[in-house]
Specification:
The protein is an alpha+beta fold. It has one domain: tt1808, chain A (Alpha-Beta Complex), CATH 3.90.1570.10. 21% of the residues lie in helices and 31% in strands. The two termini are 16 Å apart. The mean pLDDT is 91. This is Putative restriction endonuclease domain-containing protein. InterPro entries: Nuclease_put_TT1808, Restrct_endonuc-II-like, Uma2. It holds the Pfam family Uma2.
């Protein structure tokens, strides 16, 4: 999804929740500033649906919650809230909140040209401070490629690059699948400049 900053005064989380309930589109809250989230490409949407379906089916019957792009994540220890494309929490603390989760073990972002640098940089810097997060998966919507940021047992983040023919391994939810499963029947081409 594409984010655009709105020109408002700084909002508290409570003001943000109240204000956003009256909006037609979603907004992230970062350091008190509101950012509108606009839609992505057809491939972006199809890939996101496939991920949430794949994950939710895999976790059926577990105590985990699978979220799509409508589920906010509170950045642990802050008043910041984001909308990733998909997420999973298996943490009981997230069963006590109704407007967001705080302790995801998996976050998936579908990349677009306008958000890729932020997803790889600033957003990951916020997410990786969460002790519950184990897997942060960045998914291309223009080619068969995924980058998995995985936190190992020592607490170090490793980057695993996947391409056509590879099997994705999400240890956070014990799920392995061929990369092509997500890209089936899609026409992949670079995003237009304009």
């Amino acid at each position: 999804m594409i984010a655009a900053k709105e020109n408002f005064s700084t909002l508290t989380p409570e003001e943000y929740f109240t204000w956003e309930e009256q909006q037609l589109e979603k907004h992230e809250l970062i350091n008190g500033q509101v950012y509108a989230m606009s839609g992505g490409s057809v491939n972006h949407s199809r890939i996101a649906v496939r991920f949430t379906t794949l994950i939710d089916t895999h976790l059926d019957g577990s105590n985990c919650i699978t979220g799509n792009s409508d589920l906010r994540i509170n950045i642990v220890g802050t008043n910041n809230y984001t909308y990733p494309d998909a997420s999973v929490t298996c943490d009981d603390r997230d069963k006590t909140t109704t407007q967001y989760i705080t302790y995801p073990c998996l976050i998936v972002e579908i990349l677009s040209k306008s958000t890729e640098a932020y997803d790889r940089g600033g957003k990951f810097r916020m997410y990786r401070n969460n002790p519950a997060l184990q897997d942060y998966l960045l998914v291309s919507s223009t080619s068969i490629e995924m980058d998995l940021y995985h936190k190992n047992e020592a607490g170090d983040w490793l980057i695993i690059n996947y391409k056509a023919g590879d099997t994705i391994k999400l240890k956070s939810i014990n799920l392995n699948f061929p990369i092509e499963q997500v890209y089936r029947s899609l026409t992949l081409e670079p995003e237009n400049e304009g």
